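Hi there,

I know you've been waiting on this one. I reran it after we fixed the sequence typo, so this is the corrected version. Both the input and the resulting structure follow.
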Amino acid sequence: MDYHLNFFFVLRDFDKFLDGLVVTLKLTILANAMGLSLGFGVALLLMSPVRVVRWTATAFVEFFRCTPALIQIV
């Protein structure tokens, strides 16, 4: 078999691909910043000397740790 790959459509719409790359990078940076901030806040709550706060934070962490990602998305 002789395959001939044609990437003309990629080069034709390269500016759209670059726009998509910029949006993807912005969303990645934003999601990482939000995740790190939330994770740090929950970690501080887990170290709290107040039992109710610590139990609530533990329940929050265990809920997200024990449920599948697909269920969380839905």
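Quick highlight: Residues 14-73 form one domain.

Best,
R. S.
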